[in-house]
């Protein structure tokens, strides 16, 4: 897996971007060719008007009859209407192509996001993903729907108009290129700086979103600890950096736009001056001067379009690099060809520390047999939840190994790992939708009978209390659930049907009586599966086959409840304290 630099998700390089664009081109090759053909046709039709007007002037100067002029004028109107129709179909086709491309990008992004390991999401925080999935995707949407079609049409028009000026008069065509060096220089200057500038702006926006999300999520903690001023100062720092990056990109635009405006207005004046002198000296006709001037006047519109959308192109390019950056995490989704032969879990010499911190676990050795119920107990901060994350493959040990059936857990593909091992914590999420929608996430093809059986298996009376049973809408503005969220999480677990379960205080939010009843019901359903329970309520440990007592990142005792009570060690002390004995 690609390392996360500075705690951020990677950004795609130019090679990866080219491959992504080629992939999108192959998916819509036929539609892209159609759009190109329609835009070329629109641009060619638009060249007819100035040429016909030049013909009218030459015919009038030659003393032709009014019928000829009327026919030429009618042709101008006809070509204008034809251009309007062709332009309409070209934009319509391009818009549909852009929407399909954006939909494909969104689907790919969601698929890659869902494949991200939980540890990766925790390391980068929600701000980075939130920014990429919202503002970056929205920017790409604007790029695919409008910016790219408009830019392509403008580029085609520029090429065709300049070609038409040269065909009308090579002399006037040469005059039309007088500002090209200046325009090339300022565009090159802008593009050389724009990509890094907009990437920096996107990163600053991510930092700002992350700080805002953390402040909102930790509002109660801020109030209790009275650290509101500190969070405000943090937000101000992030906002200052965001303003700095935006001012830089604004500076780039403030140089590009004025210079470019002058660069494409200058050729019109030169053509009029040189064309007038050429007409006086008999080098060019008056119709040619008028046609060339009108062509260059037409040129201002596509050049304005290029200027208007060039910023969006840079923003879109930076956003596309950020969205496509998730592909770097898919380069090596699995580094093992070993298939687990069974569900035996083995930990050998496992040491682990969170990034930049001291070791949380110190040389842990543990073996969990298939079908065994193991309880992890110990004081707060001893490393129980960390060990649970390692067993679930969410984190990777720094040294040592964790295997399931002989295969390294951290190297198994996420889909295969989740079919074997599932982690249920105290934190559960209820998605907006019906109760049925929330439960079939674990098994999309589950029937109502299976869903009901899963709820009854954990002794949940949700269906009796909810107004519309499985069709009850959940979430803000509808029915809200508190402790019942854990019932839904446990019912999902039953539907998912993994062989190994890691329960990290999975019933902590339930009252003691309900928690005890739920645990007993769940134990009956999960009989024959491997269960690792992390709990402070020691009745859970009492029911386990074995108990591992963890203290300061080490397993200090291991055995059954009766064996550890008889040993009168750390577990016996915890048991007596939990029962109120001294």
Structural notes for this entry:
It contains 20 helices and 12 strands. The chain has helices at 14-27, 29-46, 48-61, 66-115, 118-168, 170-176, 180-217, 219-225, 228-280, 286-324, 384-391, 414-420, 435-439, 448-457, 462-465, 484-496, 512-525, 538-543, 561-567, 570-578, and strands at 345-353, 359-368, 373-377, 399-404, 407-408, 421-424, 433-434, 473-474, 500-504, 530-534, 546-551, 554-559. Helix 3 packs antiparallel against helix 4. 64% of the residues lie in helices and 11% in strands. With 582 residues, the protein is α/β, with parallel strands linked by helices. A 6-stranded mixed β-sheet has the order 6-9-10-3-11-12, with helices on both faces.
Give a quick summary of the entry.
By secondary structure, the chain is α/β, with parallel strands linked by helices.
Topology (elements, then pairings):
Layout: H1 14-27, H2 29-46, H3 48-61, H4 66-115, H5 118-168, H6 170-176, H7 180-217, H8 219-225, H9 228-280, H10 286-324, E1 345-353, E2 359-368, E3 373-377, H11 384-391, E4 399-404, E5 407-408, H12 414-420, E6 421-424, E7 433-434, H13 435-439, H14 448-457, H15 462-465, E8 473-474, H16 484-496, E9 500-504, H17 512-525, E10 530-534, H18 538-543, E11 546-551, E12 554-559, H19 561-567, H20 570-578
Parallel strand pairs: 3-10, 3-11, 6-9, 9-10
Antiparallel strand pairs: 1-2, 1-4, 4-5, 7-8, 11-12
Helix pairs in contact: 2-4, 2-5, 3-4, 3-10, 4-5, 5-6, 5-7, 5-10, 6-9, 7-9, 7-10, 9-10, 14-16, 19-20
């Amino acid at each position: 897996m690609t390392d996360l630099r500075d705690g951020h998700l990677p950004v795609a390089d130019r090679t990866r971007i080219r491959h992504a664009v080629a992939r999108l081109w192959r998916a819509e090759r036929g539609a892209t060719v159609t759009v190109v053909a329609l835009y070329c046709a629109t641009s060619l039709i638009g060249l007819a008007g100035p040429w016909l007007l030049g013909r009218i002037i030459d015919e009038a100067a030659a003393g032709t009859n009014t019928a000829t002029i009327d026919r030429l004028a009618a042709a101008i109107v006809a070509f204008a209407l034809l251009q309007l129709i062709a332009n309409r179909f070209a934009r319509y086709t391009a818009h549909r192509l852009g929407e399909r491309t954006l939909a494909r990008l969104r689907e790919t992004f969601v698929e890659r996001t869902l494949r991200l390991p939980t540890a990766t999401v925790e390391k980068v925080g929600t701000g980075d993903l939130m920014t990429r999935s919202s503002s970056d995707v929205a920017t790409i949407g604007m790029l695919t729907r409008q910016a790219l079609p408009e830019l392509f049409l403008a580029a085609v028009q520029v090429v065709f108009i300049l070609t038409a000026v040269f065909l009308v008069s090579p002399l006037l065509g040469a005059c039309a290129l007088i500002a090209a060096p200046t325009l090339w220089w300022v565009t090159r200057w802008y593009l050389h700086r724009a990509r890094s500038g907009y990437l920096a702006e996107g990163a600053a926006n991510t930092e700002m979103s992350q700080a805002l999300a953390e402040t909102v999520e930790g509002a109660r903690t801020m109030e209790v600890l009275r650290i509101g001023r500190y969070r405000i100062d943090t937000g101000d720092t992030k906002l200052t950096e965001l303003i700095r990056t935006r001012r830089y990109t604004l500076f780039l635009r403030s140089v590009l736009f004025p210079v470019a405006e002058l660069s494409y207005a200058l050729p019109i004046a030169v053509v009029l001056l040189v064309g007038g002198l050429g007409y006086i000296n008999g080098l060019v006709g008056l119709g040619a001067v008028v046609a060339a001037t009108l062509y260059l006047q037409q040129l201002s519109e596509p050049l304005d379009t290029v200027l208007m959308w060039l910023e969006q192109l840079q923003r879109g390019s930076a956003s596309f690099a950020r969205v496509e950056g998730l592909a770097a995490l898919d380069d090596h989704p699995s580094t093992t060809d070993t298939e687990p032969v069974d569900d035996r879990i083995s930990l050998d010499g496992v040491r682990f520390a969170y990034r930049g911190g001291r070791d949380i676990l110190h040389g842990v050795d543990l073996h969990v047999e298939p079908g065994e119920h193991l309880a992890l107990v110990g004081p707060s901060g001893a490393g129980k939840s960390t060990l649970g994350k390692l067993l679930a493959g969410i984190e990777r040990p720094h040294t040592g190994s964790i295997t399931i059936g002989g295969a390294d857990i951290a190297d198994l593909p996420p889909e295969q790992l989740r079919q074997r091992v599932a982690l249920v914590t105290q934190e559960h999420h209820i998605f907006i939708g019906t109760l049925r929608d929330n439960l079939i996430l674990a098994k999309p093809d589950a029937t109502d009978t299976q869903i009901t059986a899963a709820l009854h298996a954990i002794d949940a009376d949700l269906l009796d209390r909810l107004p519309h049973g499985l069709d009850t809408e959940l979430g803000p503005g509808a029915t809200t659930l508190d402790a019942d969220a854990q019932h839904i999480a446990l019912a999902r677990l039953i539907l998912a049907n993994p062989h190994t379960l890691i329960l990290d205080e999975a019933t902590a939010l339930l009252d003691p009586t309900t928690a005890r009843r739920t645990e007993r019901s769940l134990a009956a359903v999960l009989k024959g599966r491997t269960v690792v329970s992390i709990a402070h309520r020691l009745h859970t440990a009492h029911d386990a086959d074995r108990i591992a007592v963890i203290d300061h990142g080490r397993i200090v005792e291991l055995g059954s409840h009766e064996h550890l009570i008889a040993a009168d060690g750390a577990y016996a002390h915890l048991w007596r304290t939990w029962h109120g004995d001294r």
